Amino acid sequence: MIEVRGLTKRYGEVLAVDDLTFAVRPGEVTGFLGPNGAGKSTTLRMVLGLDAPTSGTATVGGRPYADHPAPLRAVGALLDAGAVLPGRTARHHLLALAASNGIPRRRVAEVLAEVGLDGVARRRTGTFSLGMRQRLGIAAALLGDPPVLVFDEPLNGLDPEGIVWIRGLMRRMAAEGRAVLMSSHLMSEIELTADHLIVIGRGRLVADTAMRAFIDARSGREVLVRSPQAAALRRMLSAAVQVREDGADGLVVTGLDTAEIGALASAGGVELHELTARQVSLEQAFMDLTRDVVEYHTEHAPDGAKETVR
Length: 310
Hints:
This protein has helices at 40-47, 71-74, 90-100, 106-114, 130-142, 160-175, 187-193, 211-217, 230-237, 258-267, 282-290; strands spanning 2-11, 14-24, 28-33, 55-60, 75-78, 148-152, 179-183, 196-201, 204-210, 222-226, 242-245, 250-254, 274-278, 298-299, 308-309. The longest helix has 16 residues, at 160-175. The protein starts with a strand and ends with a strand. By secondary structure, the protein is α/β, with parallel strands linked by helices. It contains eleven helices and 15 strands. It has a six-stranded mixed sheet with strand order 5-6-7-3-8-9, with helices on both faces. It has a four-stranded antiparallel sheet with strand order 11-12-10-13, with helices on one face.
């Protein structure tokens, strides 16, 4: 379990992280989200003992990362896939990490096979593609078989097969009772993978909630209805709720759920071809929530004109 309490980090006059409190619990994949400059990387660095907080605490398994005698057995992390010596083979990179934490040598072969790199274990990492380096970084995170895993942008450079693989890996790690923290800008993958969300903006906590609750709270109560008798249905509904057209045979209804609309249609003898509750995506919900805490806004210009960042 990761526990962050009142975590604050200042760099001179810049307040990068501001009194942040949250927990990453076992048995869940927690998505860690925020716009660029929100303080996500700084927070992860403090959790992993790479930066010292100005105030507050960050603990893994009840103690600071630096207090663990064999930290790779307590938490596995991928922050920078390029943090390997290019002249060292993948196998020797992992052997060095294993030796420093008292991890058996046999574990190196196991994690190389887990991430699909056993066939290139004796190649120098300087020849690896970005996707291969990502897989090696994930292998290093898994090396100590830790109860806590932290991944910062783990999907970078992965092909579709690799993305599906890591999604399954994180779900499996959580199902085994591990606490998994994943930071990514790929909202569609976070939506498919995470159970819980931590959202920050300008260093402060914006949301700490279950994935489904986060989306539901930002979804309008809209239902798409399609019927060959759309005009009749609209007359039945428009006196009580907001209704707008959606094509020749469609209506978007706000204010009633699918069961209520279905019951009204049935009572009025109206045939329905579709009755679908509309929900926003995680990306839409995130953009709406963080609109006021984005550090860098792009102003879209007409084709051929320049875009400006402010």
